[in-house]
């Protein structure tokens, strides 16, 4: 059972099947020095259950992730 976008969906497997998923990733990294940087990234992932109609959103899980941080390279 997966909960996403305030909806519940049963994405349980069982048996052999194929599902469809796609993602988009974008981000930026700014180097303050050759070893120190800050970054920000965005990721969108959409997963569709194998028996879902593409016009039916009941069995589609869309996930959006936003991340930011500090990197030290050594």
Features:
single chain, 74 residues, mainly beta, 3-stranded antiparallel β-sheet, two-stranded antiparallel ribbon, 62% strand, elongated
Number of strands: 5
User: If you average the pLDDT, what whole number results?
Assistant: 78
Largest sheet: 3 strands, antiparallel
Helix content: under 10%
Q: How many helical elements? A: 0
Rg result: 18 Å
Order of helices and strands: EEEEE
Compute the separation of the termini in Å: 42 Å
Poorly predicted parts = none
- The proportion of strand residues reads over 45%
Tell me the number of structural domains. 1
Write up what this structure looks like.
By secondary structure, the chain is mostly beta strands. 0% of the residues lie in helices and 62% in strands. It has no helices and five strands. The chain has strands at 2-4, 7-9, 20-33, 36-48, 60-72. Strand 3 (20-33) and strand 4 form a beta hairpin. The mean pLDDT is 78.
Topology (SSEs and partners):
Layout: E1 2-4, E2 7-9, E3 20-33, E4 36-48, E5 60-72
How do you describe this structure in short?
By secondary structure, the protein is mainly beta. It contains no helices and 5 strands.
């Amino acid at each position: 059972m997966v909960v996403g976008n305030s909806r519940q969906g049963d994405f349980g497997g069982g048996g052999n099947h194929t599902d469809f998923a796609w993602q988009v990733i974008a981000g930026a990294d700014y180097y303050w020095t050759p070893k120190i940087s800050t970054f920000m990234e965005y990721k969108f992932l959409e997963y569709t259950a194998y028996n879902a109609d593409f016009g039916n959103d009941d069995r589609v899980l869309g996930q959006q992730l936003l991340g930011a941080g500090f990197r030290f390279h050594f």
